Amino acid sequence: MLVIRPIQSSDFAALRQIAEESGPGFTSLPVNDGRLQQKIAHSESSFAQCVEQPGQQGYLFVLEDTASGDIVGTTGIEAAVGLETPLYHFQQNRVMHHSAELNVLNQLKTLTLCNDYTGASEICTLFLRQSYRTGYTGRFLSKVRFLFMAEHPQRFAETVIAEMRGVSNGSGQPPFWGWLQKLFLTIDFPAADHLIGIGKKAFIAELMPRHPIYVGLLPEEAQQVIGQVHEHTKPALKMLQQEGFVHRGYVDLFDAGPTIEARLGQIHSVASSIKVPVKVVPKVEPGQMLAVSNTETQGFRASFSEQARFDEHQGALLIQPELADALQLSDGELARFIVLEKGRR
Fold first, then answer.
1. Angle between the 12-22 and 33-48 helix axes, to the nearest 10 degrees?
2. Which of 148, 88, 170 shows the shortest CA–CA distance to 270?
């Protein structure tokens, strides 16, 4: 069985392996022992805190295969980004250039450096090992964050964002990067990517363009990828769009991938999640595939299974003993669930 739980210090070796597997561009898990240990400690502290409003907390979860004990994926939430270190984006705008004398009206696209998402919550750090990218696992890994957010809304902001990976070429270099490197940064992409990953972002404010950039002046290959996602990211983008996330013109500084946003209470899996008592029964007839969690914080556990069914008549979630044990749930205790997808039977 696959179970989501908060990360622990004993998961360091597994987290480092995942950081190595995730490759360039996955800045939330840099291959840096000190930074990874810091992220684990920060997450443990965040889960332990009594929180009334979002702040510097960061919640990192791991997906454990209980049969083998292996950590096979990660997923995370930042409670409020940009409070300590600014979170920068380019905002896409349009400006009008008009000459009445010449009867000319030009509408031109621009990019402006900004940190408009300061204080927003961010879903992030989603990674699943290749051999587990089947069935409902990826969907669960994305949606399980919304179960936690629905249960603990006071820990998160009204606006929730997700940064989507932008287009890169065969060597992993974003086409958008070249002009920026040549004119402003003069360091290569892996170096900039590494600095972002370890939290050293001061160079952005120091070196990035401070005035709006006319998109039409950029190389054609850079213009074409603005707001576009990497081929491998398209399924994740589609899933979040189905949750209600939209793109309002903000893009990443380096690969120009879109940052999408939604209101916490309007995210489909948050709004549709149901909190009910559980009833442990010997057998549940397979039907819908449910994602189910307990209602704990430090002791948060979640999984997905057909071993659970909502009984409207009893007003209870019927679950089999194996799933109840994995989620550390007993008769009468509360659980929260969402429907991942209707059963195939």
1. 120
2. 148
The 3 state secondary structure assigned to the chain is: CEEEEECCHHHHHHHHHHHHHHCCCCCCCCCCHHHHHHHHHHHHHHHHCCCCCCCCCEEEEEEEECCCCEEEEEEEEECCCCCCCCCCEEEEEEEEEEECCCCEEEEEEEEEEECCCCCCEEEEEEEECHHHCCCCHHHHHHHHHHHHHHHCHHHCCCEEEEECCECCCCCCCCCCHHHHHHHHHCCCHHHHHHHHHCCCCHHHHHHCCCCCEEHHHCCHHHHHCCCCECHHHHHHHHHHHHHCCEEEEEECCCCCCEEEEEEHHHCHHHHHCEEEEEEECCCCCCCCEEEEEECCCCCCCEEEECCEEEECCCCEEEECHHHHHHCCCCCCCEEEEEEEECCCC
Interval 86-138: pLDDT, tens: 899 999 999 888 878 788 888 899 999 999 999 999 999 999 999 999 899 99
Query: What span, in angstroms and rounded, lies between the C-alpha atoms of 343 and 306?
Result: 8
Q: What is the token pair recorded at 54? A: 């979002």
Average pLDDT, the chain: 91
Among 97, 98, 211, 230, the one annotated catalytic: 230
Active site residue 247: no
> Could you report the per-residue pLDDT of 176-192, keeping only the tens digit for each?
988 888 887 777 777 77
- In angstroms, the CA 290 to CA 197 distance is 34
Residue entry with tokens 């287009």: 167
- Amino acid 24: pLDDT: 64
